[in-house]
Design brief:
single chain, about 120 residues, mainly alpha, about 65% helix
Length: about 120
């Protein structure tokens, strides 16, 4: 299975559509969506049968996890330079900021997709 961070940049759906989640209406949509979401949520949650049986529960848990992770990435980005500048050279700080920004962009794409799926499957 592909990494959950693989977001299609050329998919006909949208830029934020994961490459291996089948389109809405496709017979494999819910199965592929569930597999993708299970890769997103923390491992501890995967052991609970309720998230395997109810896509809306899984979607809401994934949403909370992604929103929290995105908030954490934003906080890290905003504090990284001040926290680590006394310890590391400027080029290391710059590389860490790029990595954190990339992570934040990926999390935002994943969150956008989950929000779209909540609108489709929970409302």
């Amino acid at each position: 299975m592909a990494s959950p961070s693989v977001i299609s940049r050329s998919n006909s759906q949208n830029d934020w559509w994961p490459t291996y989640v089948a389109p809405i209406g496709h017979p494999n949509h819910l199965n592929s969506l569930t597999k993708w979401l299970l890769e997103i949520v923390p491992p501890t949650l995967r052991s609970h049968p309720v998230i395997h049986r109810h896509v809306p529960v899984l979607l809401h848990l994934a949403h909370g996890h992604l929103a929290g992770s995105l908030d954490g990435a934003r906080t890290t980005y905003s504090t990284l330079r001040a926290s680590l500048a006394p310890l590391l050279p400027p080029e290391t700080i710059a590389a860490a900021l790029i990595a954190t920004a990339d992570c934040g962009r990926e999390l935002q794409l994943q969150l956008t997709f989950v929000e779209h799926m909540i609108a489709q499957h929970c409302e």
